[in-house]
């Protein structure tokens, strides 16, 4: 019995094959989080308060607080209003394919792959353990080296 979570890789849509609903949901959530993060980053950078933002847009403070509380399904007009009111910016649209980028988290960081230094211990009560974790080349398991 396996207890690890199964992860699925995204695949590029092709032909008339239906895209799984979970894939569409993932991409929608990813887009919402990016816009939400962008608006919050610009608001923080501007030093503007939510009350000042509400006044600029002409909406109640409670409405602005609700909008900025979580990454909802904002309309393009809402995003445009928020960014323009915050700092006079407009959204610059571009498209990219996340599937054309190399897989992330597949490389071992430098500090993890550095050679282990051997130390001669003169006092056995002063023992330190070095632990190195490295991927096994023949499987997806990690190997622990002491």
- The residue ranges in which pLDDT falls below 50 over 5 or more consecutive positions are none
Helix and strand run: HHHHHEE
Structural class: mainly alpha
Shape: flat
Number of strands: 2
CATH class of the domain at 21-93: Mainly Alpha
Helix percentage: 40-55%
Across the major sheet, the strand order is: 1-2
- CA-CA gap between termini: 29 Å
Strand content: 5-15%
Q: Mean pLDDT, as a whole number?
A: 81
Largest sheet: 2 strands, antiparallel
CATH architecture of the domain at 21-93: Orthogonal Bundle
Provide the CATH topology of the domain at 21-93: 434 Repressor (Amino-terminal Domain)
Rg, rounded, reads 24 Å
- Treating each run of at least 4 consecutive H or I residues as one helix, how many helices? 5
């Amino acid at each position: 019995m396996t207890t690890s979570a199964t992860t699925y890789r995204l695949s590029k849509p092709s032909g008339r094959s239906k895209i799984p609903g979970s894939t569409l949901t993932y991409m929608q959530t990813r887009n919402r989080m990016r816009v939400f993060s962008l608006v919050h980053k610009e608001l923080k950078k501007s030093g503007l308060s939510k009350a000042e933002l509400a006044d600029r847009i002409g909406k109640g403070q409670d409405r602005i607080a609700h909008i900025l509380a979580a990454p909802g399904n904002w309309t393009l007009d809402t995003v445009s209003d928020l960014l323009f009111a915050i700092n006079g910016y407009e959204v610059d649209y571009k498209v990219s394919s996340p599937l054309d980028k190399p897989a992330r988290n597949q490389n071992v960081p430098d500090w993890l792959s550095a050679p282990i230094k051997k130390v001669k211990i003169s006092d056995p009560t002063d023992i330190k353990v070095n632990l190195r974790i490295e991927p096994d080349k023949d499987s997806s398991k990690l190997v622990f080296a002491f």
